[in-house]
Amino acid sequence: MEPADRDQQPEDRPAETQPSQRRFGAFTRRGALLGMGAVAGVAAVDVGGFAYAGGWLRPDDLTPPRFADRFEHVFGRHEGFRRNHAKGLSATGSFASNGAGAAICRAAVFQAGSVGVVGRFSLGGGLPDQSDKPDTVRGLGLVFQVPNGRQWRTAMVNFPVFTDRTPEGFYERLLASKPVPATGKPDPQKMAAFLDRHPETVAALKIIKQTPPSVGFADSTFHGLNAFYFTNSAGATVPVRWSAVAQQDKGALPAPSAGKDYLFDDLIVAVGRRPLTWKLVLTIGEPGDPTNDATKPWPQSRRSIDAGTITINAVQTEEAGNARDINFDPTVLPDGITVSDDPLLAARSAVYARPFTRRAEEPKSPSAVNVSGVRS
Predict the structure, then answer these.
(1) Which residues are annotated as a binding site?
(2) Binding-site residues for heme, please?
(3) What is the domain count for the chain?
(4) Residue 10: what pLDDT?
(5) Catalytic site includes residue 85
(6) Which residues bind heme (predicted)?
(7) Which pLDDT band holds residue 171 (cuts at 50, 70, 90)?
């Protein structure tokens, strides 16, 4: 869910599958245009930066370096920072599995017991010094340290669905969302034309508008968005989506503060008082539920499993040795989990490594958020 930051080993990468095509109904174009404003910055949210992969766009039109160039053109060049989700904090903690997930997945992480996690809280967009706003997309990336040296990486956001079904759609929306110099806002005619071509985005924006953001990171529920396949020890395979559901007593969280970095400042204070927890919920799809379309929610009636508790007990200023340089590539998966036919997955993975190559050659700038400067 953000441009890649570290190369991964070939054995960690599952085979890619081919996308299939689906479409979705829409509400009014005017409502969608208003929705685009309500979710400011959505054109560069979490699942950004993947349009070239797999031949979805012609190589002579767009390559991974050129896509990174476009992010730099929109947000400017900020050396040492990610091209998307530039503003963030590292985190550490654990995942305590209760063993219930083993019924549908043989991955060791779902066996009863505890494993370490490294995480990153972030805001969408390529501006490391942007002011925190309640409607900016919030991200939570996690690396589960699975036994035997394997990893499970996931990049989640606080939106219940994604805004685009395909890489092409994301790319078109990014272009349509480019601010016009005279107004500093997108050209309404270009955006209206984009929405006319993409009713699935219109429908997704309606769902997003119906789910207002919580007060901060600590009480946000984070969604994996894409579907994956889980296989258990008996060889049975089911489609799954997952979410991290906040377990904090909202009355015990610090009162919202003011200031440019208030979302991160409040997170730092909250973790300083007590560990924060999220329930890892696995939702099991049924025949007919789309696995190749992240704009469509599954019915709320679907069976779900409480697989255990994610605990974050510390956050850190980003620096070498923590989550600063981790690539939260969602296709780095343990045995027992494989990618679905969602076209976003293969595309995200293919382009994620490119920005890391650039960042590796750049001087590292100070972290945009400093933990030591916040009092609990």
Answers:
(1) 352
(2) 352
(3) 2
(4) 32
(5) yes
(6) 352
(7) confident
